[in-house]
Amino acid sequence: MTRSRIIGLMERKLTADLAADRVQLAGLVRQSAEALRMAERLEGMLNDRRVKPGQEALAATFRLGRRLTSEIAAEGARQADRAAELKAEAAARRAVLTQKDRKRERLAEARRAATEDEASAREARIAASLPPGAGRRSGTGLA
What is the helix (H) or strand (E) element at residue 100, kind and residue range? Predict the structure, then answer.
């Protein structure tokens, strides 16, 4: 197996890994957005549950409402924290993707250089195997 073939296979594998990583990154971004939307909805629910001035209710209703409100607030905080964690993880994955992409570009350049070197070596072997003067032609048209 030639050097250019090996480097080409490495480049293909890295390209496939990059595609899989991009799919995972898209999933992280989607999950982060969902968590953020959920936190915003919960915040909206909290705002709706706030007692307005002049609103009257029984003490039992206030106790029940306070418990539910604290659960909604806790879940909203959890969702906001989850969104922040997912966002940080997505940023870290983007950095890894950038490094892998640069590595893939370097492999592509190395494969092209190896292909050129192999072609030059092949031409040199062919030229060396020909009898002297057989491979050369003069520009005058006379043989």
Answer: helix 59-129
User: Strand, coil or helix: what is 111?
Assistant: helix
Look at residue 141 and tell me if it is in a domain: no
If one counts the domains in the chain, the total is 1
DSSP annotation of 79 reads H
Q: Can you tell me the mean pLDDT for 96-109?
A: 96
Supply the pLDDT for residue 114.
95
Mean pLDDT of 40-52: 83
Integer angstrom CA distances of residue 119 from 6, 24, 89, 95, 115: 16, 39, 45, 36, 6
Q: What is the pTM of this model?
A: 0.70
CATH number at residue 81: 1.10.287
